[in-house]
Amino acid sequence: MRQMTKVAITTISAALVLTLTSCGSGPSAETRMTTRVTDGAEAVINTDGNDIRVSNLLLVATEDGAAVIVGHIVNRADESDKVLGITVGNVQAALTGLTDLKTNQPIHFEGELANAKGVFAGVNPVAGTNVDLTIGFARAGLVTVKTIIRDKRDLYANVTSGAKLETAVTE
User: Fold this and answer.
1) Total-model pTM
2) Percent helix, strand and coil across the chain, each rounded to 5?
3) How far apart are CA 16 and CA 135, in angstroms?
4) I want to staple 93 with a disulfide (CB 3.0 to 4.6 A). Which of 10, 52, 118, 140 is the partner?
């Protein structure tokens, strides 16, 4: 009888451990299906011969009241495309640098490999809020993503708007 009790307790304990810890959920477990690894937004345009990937897209609030675009855009399609503009609400970002999207040649906003810059000057962004950011492409059309505004610290401590102060005196 004592042996039977030990076997029953062991079996019930094992069943509870597997079901309560979700180890028995299998390949469709929610935590296994998570693909977003950063706080940046992601989007894919994969229609009408387009294959554009937007990754790690976010805005960084700077001390001069600007919001700076951080992220990457890559065109995987055979035909080139072009970034025509980036907006939040009715405010257009000032874009400098690379805007042509050639096949597998990414546009990097900020970072060591930066080849483009996008700045929303004078918008006084509030860190921690989310905004709808829209990117317009020549071929692929428009894509809108919910984008977080981050404060200028940690990984984003060196992000600057690049705007010159109008009160600066030059001699």
Assistant:
1) 0.73
2) 15, 40, 45
3) 49
4) 118
Label residue 82 by pLDDT band (50, 70, 90). Answer: very high
How confident is residue 21, by pLDDT bands cut at 50, 70 and 90? low
**How far, in Å, CA of 3 to CA of 115, rounded?**
71
Q: How many angstroms from the chain centroid is the CA of residue 160?
A: 18
Span 31-42, average pLDDT: 65
Residues 61, 146, 103, 142, CA torsion sign: negative
Q: CA nearest 146: which of 68, 88, 85?
A: 88
